Amino acid sequence: MLLIHCPYCEMERPELEFRYAGEAHVVRAQDPESVGDEDWGRHLYLRSNPKGLHAERWRHTNGCGRIFNCVRDTITDKISVTYKAGQPRPETAK
Predict the structure, then answer these.
(1) What residue spans define the domains of the chain?
(2) Is 91 exposed, middle or buried (0-12, 13-18, 19+ CB in 10 A)?
(3) Greatest CA span in the chain, whole angstroms?
(4) Pick the CATH number of 3-30+38-93 from 3.90.550.10, 3.90.600.10, 3.30.2270.10, 3.50.50.60
(5) 78 near 3, Cβ under 8 Å?
(6) Rounded to whole angstroms, how far apart are CA atoms 23 and 61?
(7) So what's the pLDDT on residue 93?
(8) CB 56 within 8 Å of CB 47
(9) pLDDT at residue 94 in the model
(10) Conformation bin of residue 22: beta by default, left when phi > 0, alpha when psi is -120 to 50
(11) Is the N end or the C end of the chain the one with fewer CB atoms within 10 Å?
(12) Distance of alpha carbon 36 from alpha carbon 19, whole angstroms
C-alpha cells in the first residue's frame, strides 16, 4: 500500500484515503467552443503514459478533500514528491 503525503494536511496517509484524478498539468482550452471535434477528443481521452516519472493529480477524499499533484514512478510505484495544485512541477522531479 502506498503512503501519500498530502501537501495541504501535511500528513502521510494510506492510499485508500485518496483518489487518482488523472494526469497533472494538462492545459485546458481557453475557448472550448473554438476547438474542433478531433482536437477536443484528443484533449479528453489521450494522455501520456510514460515509463518512469509521471506527474499526476490526486484528491484527498477522506481528508481535506483538496486536489494536489505528485510525481510517481510508474515502474516502482514510488511517489517522489507531492505539491499543491497550481504550483509548477519541481525541477528535481523532471
Answers:
(1) 3-30+38-93
(2) exposed
(3) 43
(4) 3.30.2270.10
(5) no
(6) 17
(7) 56
(8) no
(9) 54
(10) left
(11) N
(12) 31
Buried b (16+ CB within 10 A) or exposed e, 32-62: eeeeeeeeeeeeeeeeeeeeebbbbbbbbee
Residue 26 cell numbers, joined: 494538462
In this structure, the chain runs to a length of 94
Per residue in 63-80, pLDDT tens? 999 999 999 999 999 999
Place of cell 478533500: 65
